[in-house]
Structure formats: C-alpha cells, structure tokens
Amino acid sequence: MTLTARDALTEVARVFKEDRPPAEQNAEHLYAVFAQPRSDGALSLQGEQFLGLVIAQDVARHPGRIFAELLPRPSVEAVLLDTKIKEVLARLDTQRLYALPVLDEGGRFTGAVTRTSALGACLGRNRRAASNEAALKEREAQLRALLEAVPDLLFRIRGDGTYLDCKPAAGFPTYVPPAECLGKKATDVLPPAVAEESLRLIGRALERSEVQIHEYRLVVQDEPRDYEARTCPAGRTRCSRWCAT
Tell me, what DSSP letter sits at residue 170? Predict the structure, then answer.
C-alpha cells in the first residue's frame, strides 16, 4: 500500500489571522491560519478560508506580530490527501520548507505534513508490515533508498554525544569529514560553544521526546556558513540529527 499525505498528518493549532501567538513556544509548534471567525463570534473553523501555515521559528524571529503578518510570501501551494509521501518529501526538500498544508478533495484544509511526520509514517509502516525476514529486508531497502534521496547530512548519535553512524550528503560543506566523526564525541569535533549546545539539545530531545532545532555558524574552508540541525529522539538513548545549510 502506497503511503500518502493522509498517513503523515501532524498536529496543527488552528488560529485566526488577527490572533497573536502565545508567549510560550515549542520548536515544533505549527499554526494553521484562517481568515476570520464567524459573524456570530463563535469559534468555529468549519468552512472558514485557510490562509497558510506559520511555523514557530517565524514567531520567534518576529515577536509581537499577529499571525497575518507572519504568513509566508508567496503562499505555499498545498498538497492533497492522496499525494504520495515521496512527492511530499521532494516538495519539502526542493523548496526547503518545514511543512506543507494538506487539503481534501473539496479544497478544505485538513492538516499539515512535515519531514518528521512523513519519515515517521514510513518508519511506522515498515515496523507494522515486516511480518517476516524477507518483508523486513524489502522495507529496509525502501527506507534506505528514501533516506538516500534526502539531500541533508544525517548522523545517528548516542545520548553522550558520540557519533555512531552517518549518511553523507553530496556537496555538503562540513567542518570535519563525516566519516572522521564516527566513534568520537561532539566535543571532539566541533567548536566548544556549538558542541555544548548540541549536547544540551540532544539531552533535551531524549528527555522530552521532542524534536530540537539548533541553528549555528561554522567556518568551513575559511568561509562562515550557517547550519540548521534537527535532533530527533530515536529510542531512549539515541537520536537522529539532520543537518542542512
């Protein structure tokens, strides 16, 4: 069975464009912004006009703004519920988006898909479908092919910051060659400030079972470069860390 956007919908908070974001923000908060409440003032979003998605990072960058001022320009084209996960991931990667809105067949907003929720749907299906060794090997091959199609650098890291495995990315500028990181700790291969924050976020990801976002700058080949890493819990003691420029 082919996975679609329907299988990877993630939690979204529904708000109106004149609302202001709450003071407390989580890095994974995602808001679906609608045009206006009903004329009678009731809080019902059925049939209201969907305007777009706002992510927590944009809220943090522009404190005090209402949601209407935080909407992306130009607006992001939505996908349908039956859009294949492979196509969703391709859109997220090529357009460098955090999330895509999802509409039903009638054009009504249904939810959103992120890279994390899409890959989680793939992993979840693999676990459920692997009823025998042959099926498991086939699913693992499909997942490997899917991961290879993702352009980001991926590390598997223990809770103490030790690099266990990596998936290199072609043309990705790195501070240290990824293969040289294996078996070493973040404190051995990264500048102290970056390593310290990386370890803090790894611990936080494991403690809270939440994705943690780390934005930092490194000097690579005498040129300063900005990076963004997403640390995802992968069990009780290990994390996956996606790195993008």
Answer: T
Beta bridge partners of 185: 162
Burial of residue 118 (number of CB atoms within 10 Å: 0-12, 13-18, 19+) = buried
User: How many residues are present in the chain?
Assistant: 245
How many angstroms from the chain centroid is the CA of residue 113? 9
List the chain domain ranges: 5-119, 151-244
Give, in words, the CATH class of 151-244.
alpha beta
Quickly name the fold that domain 5-119 has: CBS-domain (3.10.580)
pTM of the entire structure? 0.51
What are the average pLDDT values for consecutive 10-residue runs of the chain, which has 245 residues? 89 91 79 76 57 90 91 91 93 90 92 89 71 67 67 83 83 82 91 92 89 89 86 82 69
CB count within 10 Å of CB 159 equals 17
